[in-house]
Amino acid sequence: MLLIPWIDPGLFTQYMWDGGTIYSVFGFHLRYIEDVNYKNILRLYATGYCKAEELFVRNKLKHYAVMFEKDNKRWWQHFRENEFMAVYYKE
Questions:
Q1: What is the pLDDT of residue 29?
Q2: Whose C-alpha in 18, 20, 41, 72 is 20 to 30 A from the C-alpha of 11?
Q3: Chain centre distance of CA 45
Q4: Does residue 78 sit within a domain?
């Protein structure tokens, strides 16, 4: 079961991609997602996802795009499949 909803790929714009990164907003890198506190932060601020190959801009194979919102600012970032599943999949 996924912990965040699928959202339309058309919402993932170039402008929003330029809007931030996990490091610039939360102060840590994706390579530290094994830390439960970091996973909880990523879950709290994520508003949705889609497969990155479905994107109209910056599409990528074997990746997901995750949309975030914090302090009334929205942006998105790519996650590798294993990173996405480690954070947003719950059995």
A1: 80
A2: 41
A3: 9
A4: yes
